Amino acid sequence: MRTFGVEEELLLVDAATLEPLPAGEWAVSLRDRTTGTGHRLTTELQREQIEVDCPPRTTLAGQLAAIRAGRALAAEVAAGVGAQVAALPTAPGPVTPHLASAPRAQWVRDHFGLTAREQLTCGFHVHVAVGSREEGVAVLDRIRVWLPVLLGLSANSPFWQGTDTGFASYRYQAWGRWPTAGPIDVLGSADAYDRHRRDLLASGVPLDDGMLYFDARLCEHHPTVEVRVADVCLDAGHAAVIAALTRALVETAARAWRAGDAAPARRASVLRAWMWQASHTGVGGDLVSPATGTLVPAADVVAEFLGVVGPVLSEYGEEPGVSAVVEDILRHGSGARAQREAFRRHGDVADVVAMAIEATHRAPGTPPGTPEGF
């Protein structure tokens, strides 16, 4: 079984006002960045963020435990600066972000202007182990058409600067302003991937390989494929299932490559439209079916996806748990729906943040307002 690990970017908010608090650097400095559990706390582009890097795991249950432990650790350091953390991909209310003090962040600000200054977004990145760069690129070529499903299931960012954007994942729209963000074409080999990477870096537009913001990429520091499309999820159980689906997709793609199956030949420009649709409606409307290239009900595309990765999920013993959570998302909606419902109660984005804080640390599957427990 391939190991898989996640990175969660969390929003830091003032414990009293529930407004974004630019204290991420201060909070992280209060303790060592590594822990006995293998978690690592880091800063991000904006001071209103904390990133939690979770250790690799081999099981869905282990992944869920790692995510919950990481969120608890982030809450602990946040409390030291009078803050709380929330699994919110965008701040629901008006905010003027504060860039981190690191020289790299200042370079990004000077080079990218308003795009950098406004970029307060929190994603959910899944790393899945691969045996080689060649296998990694083969995986990237074959998972592209299914990444909109992962975005749709995770969609959790309908608000931006106090406004309902009409999108289920506005984070993906805001993130798409970076020049290297989004889908890439089928490359076919590690050499072709490396040439693509070198050409982008030679242009001088991205600062370094860390700014190659593809929807999925090879990690330059670990032997993994990094899938970067998902919103950070309110529910830790949803997050763990997105990670498990990602691992199953990677394993399925690797097996297809070894069997000699060709990668789906969809251009990046076409996939960009598919991703836009997933960002717009999440699983509350239509998604593009990879089988037909046309819009069909999201539940049907999700069923197609589960049909593709189902054999691996069954082999890993994860199919029942994953299917139950996916069914729950389809029935009750992702985080975007929960945020809108919280806002409708009083028309106050503070209610959205309060709901998100509770949901971030609630036991998976527990209805809001009930005691913690499975």
UniProtKB/TrEMBL annotation:
This is Putative glutamate--cysteine ligase 2. Keywords: ATP-binding, Ligase, Nucleotide-binding. It catalyses: L-cysteine + L-glutamate + ATP = gamma-L-glutamyl-L-cysteine + ADP + phosphate + H(+). PANTHER family: GLUTAMATE--CYSTEINE LIGASE 2-RELATED (PTHR36510:SF1). HAMAP family: Glu_cys_ligase_2 (MF_01609). ATP-dependent carboxylate-amine ligase which exhibits weak glutamate--cysteine ligase activity. It holds the Pfam family GCS2. Its EC number is 6.3.2.2. It is an enzyme of class 6 (ligase). The keyword Ligase applies. One of its GO terms (biological process) is modified amino acid biosynthetic process. Belongs to the glutamate--cysteine ligase type 2 family. YbdK subfamily. InterPro entries: GCL_type2/YbdK_subfam, GCS2, Gln_synth/guanido_kin_cat_dom, YbdK. GO terms for molecular function: ATP binding; glutamate-cysteine ligase activity. The keyword tRNA processing does not apply.
